[in-house]
Records
---
Amino acid sequence: MNTRLRFSLAASILLGFALTAAAQQVPAQAEAERIVSGTVKDFSAAVMSGDFTAFHAQTATQLKAKYTPAQLKEAYAAFVEAKIDVAPLVQGLKPTFDPPIKLGDDGVLKLEGSFPSTPRVTFRCSYVYQAGGWKPLGVGVVKEAATGRAAPAPADAQRLVLQTLQEFSDAVSANDFSALHARGSTPLRKQLTPAKLKESFAAFVDQKINVVALMKSKTAEFDGQPSIDDDGVLVLKGTYQGKSGPIRFTVKYVFEDGEWRWLALNVKT
């Protein structure tokens, strides 16, 4: 049985230019938040589908004149080829603007700042007011580099992964994923409710599979040393010897609030 949850992280590429436009009022904070969140969501949809037609149609006239949908896709090839999806990271999060929201004398609205995601996603977007709304003129999204935090020692990694699998087993046995959800990272909690998390592991719940109870040994055999990838994600992958066969696992974590919180979980019995 193999159940997998994945959360893609962001990378970076920037696109932008300026022009002369009619003056408009600076949008309120809540409106600016809605504007940039919508842009990031629409951009991610284009990246994941590999089709920039709908995204292109929502942009400013000047950007449309400079780029076709195919050229936009080419400009963001790094995102498309790597299937980098920033939407799950920032879903439900409010952006912080730094510097403050600015409307230039040329009528270009500049929204720059970041989302409090892990890793942090920053943005640099510009807009002009056309056809009753703010249309993207330049869109830049950047994933911050990993923090350089060291991976935990093997003994600590043993305790961490066993704790996560115990919490997972408790959730399956209780038919209640609230506690497991609460132990998850911010991106996971924003993406999935406890009910959706339970649905993702329905095969375990329906068959009442308690992973920890199936273990013959509670010492994991890791596939190599615990490591942190380029996104700052701790990857713990390996095998437990089970009573009726090996139990394979991959658990991913991000460091939040002084501790490692799980981001993705894959278990195969």
Note: The chain has eleven helices and twelve strands.
---
Amino acid sequence: FRQPGPPHFERVAEVMRSVISWDRLVISSVGIEAGTVVDAYIEDIRIDGRTESDVRPITGTVAEYFIDHSKPLLLNDETVDDVVVLVPQLQAVADGGLSSGISIPLRSWNKLVGVLHIRAVASDAYSTRDVAYAEALGLQLAGPLASEQMRLQLK
């Protein structure tokens, strides 16, 4: 199940892996009006209680954080406790053994349409350079994700 994500997410995952090493990649679709988030694409390590296509309330998620914040989140051993206070649902990710991560807001026409999550088991796996790469790839994801959301709404 890849809905509500465009079919090219698997190719995006391949490209992403060639640029940034990761153990888990998630592309979430955000429904601001409905107050929901759906993990449209999950690759590799699974977290208990998180599967593709499950519709979850946006409350306490990275997506909720990105409604009001546009700066990406960089998670590492030093920042994870502070970030979990801001985004409580990240506790499940930290408990799942993924201590490093990058979360990028995906915006189309200045509207949050999704979130790109990149996670690693290794401590301090990511740098600000990795964040810049992820942001560039995220720019390529936002438009197709917004188009797919619109297509599904029109069905």
Note: The mean pLDDT is 84.
